[in-house]
Every structure is written in structure tokens, then in C-alpha cells.
Sequence to fold (600 residues):
Amino acid sequence: MRVLIPGIGGVLGQRVARRLLEQGHEVIGIDRRPWPDAPPGIELHNVDIRKRAAEDVFRKRRPQAVIHMATVTHLVEKTAERYKINLGGTRAVFEHCRDWGVEHAIFVGRHTYYGAAADSPLYHKEEDPPMAVTTFPELSDLVAADLYACTALWRLPNLCTTVLRMVYTLGPTGHGTLATFLRGRHVPMVLGFDPLFHFMHEEDVTTAICLALEKRVQGVYNVAGPQPVPLSVVVRGTGRAPIPLPEFAFRAALGRFGLPRLPPGALAHIMYPVVVDSEAFRAATGFVHQVDEVRAMEEYRNAFPVRG
Amino acid sequence: MSLLIDPEIAARVDRLELPFNAYGVDPYGASKQHLARLFTLLRFLYRHYFSVGVEGIEHVPARGRAMLVGNHSGGIAIDGAMVITSCFFELEPPRLAQGMAEKFMAQTPFMGLLATRSGQLTGLVETAEHLLHDERLLMIFPEGARGTAKLYPERNTLVHFGSGFMRLAMKTRTPIIPFGFVGGGEAIPTIANSYALGKLLGAPYVPITPWGVALPAPVRLELTYSAPMNFDGTGTEEDEVIEGYVEQVKQRIAGLIEVGRERRRKALAWSRDAEDEARIEGETGGTKEEQR
Fold:
């Protein structure tokens, strides 16, 4: 199959590309970021997904499937630019899919879509509403991109659309929101709160995305691996030391003393859990995770040992 | 292992048939270590501080989904705590009854954390359904926060029952095991509920007792389980149908409360007789004063 990956330059994009190449697919990538040591079999186009040149790739190469991974989080880009990339980019991808005869489009989204709040249920099902918009306005563009991708399910009946809501990634590449949060020697926590964190190893993330492509499943799916674990366990399991701070002190300390500069809404995500039910995805694709939570943490710890 | 954990109880926690991971945490965040610490404390309350009389525990199934449904008794959750304790100590193998807590608990530092670590989750239909789907034992007080607000003279009455539990039980084909709880109102005789204080603490209200705070008195408690009730249907029936079923459960619970009161009266009368005899024999027996 000829597969186009917008956002191939990211850590996950690269892994998915390599895996698909190994499986014998023809892989084409679009990204503004360079990928200098890309394997020779992969065709790279150094263009912005929202630009005319990206549409040319669709027109000339006519991919059968598209895996859209060109979204960014608040940790990477400032607000205005991020909105343009996440919303404009997603729109462009689905329009090109419609216009150039793509058969299958996969949108790779995030489980933080559901948002964290004291009254949000454990084990979100796919039909749960996105609470993230109220609890964490900085995530609203990702929620909107997710919902926009979902509209393709009825707007573009000829296109098989898959929307994946992946839990956090944790593994030796150190990629992802959770891995970034855990990077320092001390990890701040909110005193008196220790929510469950749902994460999976990057190998399993790659496998899940490739399975969604192979099985051509249509619809919206939560994707998770092993069971969630409390944040304190994640912190200790990755060799870090938790620093519990009262909520008010935490708010005041953000961005100072070497603590990450997080938007205020992010605090909800370290006070309350976002945990998803991935039974539907497992049933539809036969996905089984290979790496359990213990090994995922171990591999992260070995790749990013605490200095000193 | 901590000093606060009895090794015997830790061994019993190991026998809980829950999918704990390598860190001793189950998929809902309940932790073996916390459970062992909690049950060490609860056993003292259950066996020594209060004396809890339990009848009909054999009606609680050893495995599979079930819903314990009962009345609220007492201004703080000693009723729930004693039900959980009875399922842990009286059943073989032990079972963890999982309650549905008020939302304010999750927002309060430590409180929500301790609740979650002992398997007590925020009361949400979605979470309850998922627990039943995983064949867990659910504990439900259909009176909700209205039930804990009962004042001393109303302690053995029932207030309005919500119907959500019935729809959920029917939808998930879960047997309902009604229970009646007596004595919580004597342990915490609420003379008033302070809503102003509650607002200050982030709780719906704070019960006030003759001795001020809601510290429970060491009294006798009676817990009575009855045979399971099954209701066929889909849970999408008309309100009239559902409310009829809820009324059946409510009546059963009202009966169980009477059974418990009777047992409590006898037990106290017996202990008073024993005290009298002791006094006759010339010993000054402890004058254990109990309200009724």
C-alpha cells in the first residue's frame, strides 16, 4: 500500500514510517522538520501540510492511505501558530484525502481529549464528551482537531476514517507530554493528589497505529496498553523523586525553580486522572500490548538516568 | 512493612481476587498497602470500638457482580466503612466492596486520594457500570447525601431513594443485595447540620453532635443483609415501573432495619442484664450507657 504520513519528522512518525517500510509498504512523508537519517526507501517532502506543495504530493503520488500525525501540543508551539497547524493542517489533510481519492485516513489524537476533572469518570468510552475544553482551554485546538476529524465519518462517506485517541507515550525515546514532564530529577506533584496515569510504550503505540491501518477499522477508538498506575509510582519507577507541593504553592512555583512552565489548566491533569477504556479497539484490531508498565518505566529510566 | 499494618491482614489483602499489578495497584487505583493499613484500622473499629452484629453475610456472593444497596445511618460514612469491613472479614475469600463517594471528596486533598487507594471512587454512573462490567462488588446508598443528613429522631427512617441504581442493575443484570444498617444514628447523633461550615470545608454540610464534632461514640451497630433481589428488564422502562421496583427494595430495607433494631434491643438488654447480675454479685460493673 502507498501510505502518506504528514508529520513524519516526529519521533512517532519516524517509528511508524520505519515499521511500515519493514512491512513492505511504500512510505511517503510530509514534514517541515528535516529527517536527515531517514532510511533510503522513504520518500520525503519538506513542505508545510497547509501549503500548495503538500497538495501536489497527494495529486502526483496518489496515496491509498494517510496517517495524519502533524499535530502539536502546547509544549512545542505558542498558541496562535499551534491553532493554525492543528486546525488548518487537519482540514487540509481531509480535504486532500477527499479530492485525491485516498481510501483510508487515520487521525492520531490524544486521550487528553476527555480532560481531567474531579467528576470525570474512570475508563472513558469513546462517546464521552470532551471535558478538556473547560478544564484546560489550551487543549481546545486538539479537541477541535479531533472532532473535525470525526466529522469526516459522515461528511466523507467514501473515505474510511479512523480517529485514534492514544494514551501518553513512555519509553526510551523520551518522546511525549508525560516523558517531558518526567525529565527532571524532581517531579512536582500536587500535595494530597495522586491520579492514575495511563501510558504505553512507543513500540506498542507504533504497533497500534499500524494495526489500525492494516485492519482498516472505521470509527473512533481509544488506544491504551497496560493498566494505568498512580503518578507517584510513575515518578519513582522512572527513578525520579516526587516533590509534593500544596496546590497554591504549585501554582505560584510554575515556571520558577526549574519547574516546567505549564498553563494553569494543566494542573488538573496532575490532580485528576484521564483513563480510557480501549476494549473496542482491541476487539476491532486484535491489538495486544507487548510492553507492560514496569518495563516501559524501566526503559525510560535507563535512557534518561538522573544525573548527579 | 509499616507498623500500622497487621501482617495477618496484609495476607488477607493478598487473597482479594482483584487484578493488582506489580506495584500492588488495581486498575481503579486501589492499592494493597493502603487497603492493609485501612483494614488494620477498621478491624479495630469493627471488633473493639463498636461492636458490630452482622446477619445474612452469606447472601453476598463470593464472586461476580453484585450491588449492596442499603440505608444511610449516621452523619459520616461509618455505615459504608462497616459494610466494607464486614465483606472483607466475614467473606471467604474476602471481597472489596466499592462505594460511590460524593464528588467533593475527590476535590479535597488527601481525602480523594485515600478514598481512591481503598477502592472508593467518585459516584458516577459510568464508573459504576464499568465496575460491574469487571464483576466487582458495588456498594450503593440510594438516599445519597440526603441520607447522611438525617437528624437523631429520624435515624431509623428512610428518605427518598434515587432510581439510578435500579436502572443500572437491570441494564447490567446485577443482583441487588439489600442491607439495613442500625446504630449509626446513635454513634453520631446529629442535632443539626451546618451548611455554613460545610461550605467553608468544601463539603455539602458538617453534622453537629451534642459533643460538637462528628466523632462517633462506641455503640453497638447492627448490619443485616437479605437474600438477593433480581429485576428483569433493560433499565429503559418507564419511571412508574422503575419506581415500583425501587419501592420494593426500599420496603425490604425498611424491614431489615426493624430486624436490626430488634436484634440491637435484645443485645443491649442482654448486656444490661449481665451488668445487673454482676452488680448483684457485688462487683461494680462498668455502666455502659447506651441510647436504647
